[in-house]
From TrEMBL:
Phosphatidic acid phosphatase type 2/haloperoxidase domain residues: 61-171
Localization (cell): Cell membrane
PANTHER family referenced in this protein's UniProt entry, alphabetically: DECAPRENYLPHOSPHORYL-5-PHOSPHORIBOSE PHOSPHATASE RV3807C-RELATED, SPHINGOSINE-1-PHOSPHATE PHOSPHOHYDROLASE
The protein's name: Phosphatase PAP2 family protein
Organism (species): Evansella alkalicola
Membrane topology: Multi-pass membrane protein
Domain of life, source organism: Bacteria
Listed Gene3D superfamilies: Phosphatidic acid phosphatase type 2/haloperoxidase
Repeat is among the record's keywords: no
Transmembrane stretches, start-end: 35-55, 61-80, 114-137, 157-177
Length: 178
């Protein structure tokens, strides 16, 4: 078991350094610091509020499902962050390209990645053709978290899994009441 854990940690750090250092370019430097905020609380909650206020009844219902998915996934990651206490990569690793505003809470799992997947997956499940637009955006938000030095790749992968599972469970749960 120790070999597996050692391999996973080493691979995670290597992939982190590859994304954080080796794919640096002007385009990513300009775009990713802005895209990363699409997974933040302000944008996520504002978007859902607009959907619930302006959309038709069916899309409003999906917005409510997405909000429930977002809240439930964030309750879970709050407890995971407290239980796991994984330090952010810039506090542990050398030579990290870091964004201008480092975070002070724990790294695992990524809240931004969890948020975006918990929301977009609700809409992708109801309207699968939206996946063509929303999935690349969600993956780009996860990539941005590593690129900006804030998370390890596994933080984002697990965040995406938690967000996706949350959306599936909420939709499944609602199917019993419809």
């Amino acid at each position: 078991m120790n070999r597996v854990v050692t391999w996973l940690v080493t691979s995670d750090e290597h992939l982190f350094h590859f994304v954080n250092q080796n794919i640096k370019c002007r385009i990513f430097d300009a775009i990713l610091p802005k895209i990363t905020h699409l997974g933040g609380a302000t944008f996520s909650l504002s978007s859902l509020l607009l959907i619930m206020l302006l959309a038709n009844e069916i899309v409003r219902f999906w917005g409510i499902q997405a909000l429930i998915s977002l809240v439930s996934s964030h309750l879970l990651i709050h407890f995971i962050k407290k239980a796991y206490c994984r330090q952010r990569p810039y506090t542990k690793l050398a030579h990290v390209n870091l964004c201008s505003r480092p975070l002070k809470d724990y790294s695992f799992p990524s809240g931004h990645t969890t948020a975006v997947f918990s929301i977009i997956m609700v809409f992708c499940i109801h309207l699968p053709y939206l996946s063509i637009l929303l999935m690349p955006l969600a993956f780009l938000i996860g990539l941005s978290r590593v690129y900006l030095g804030l998370h390890y790749p596994t933080d984002c992968i697990i965040g995406a899994c938690i967000g996706t599972l949350s959306a599936i469970l909420v939709i499944f749960g609602f199917s019993f009441y419809i």
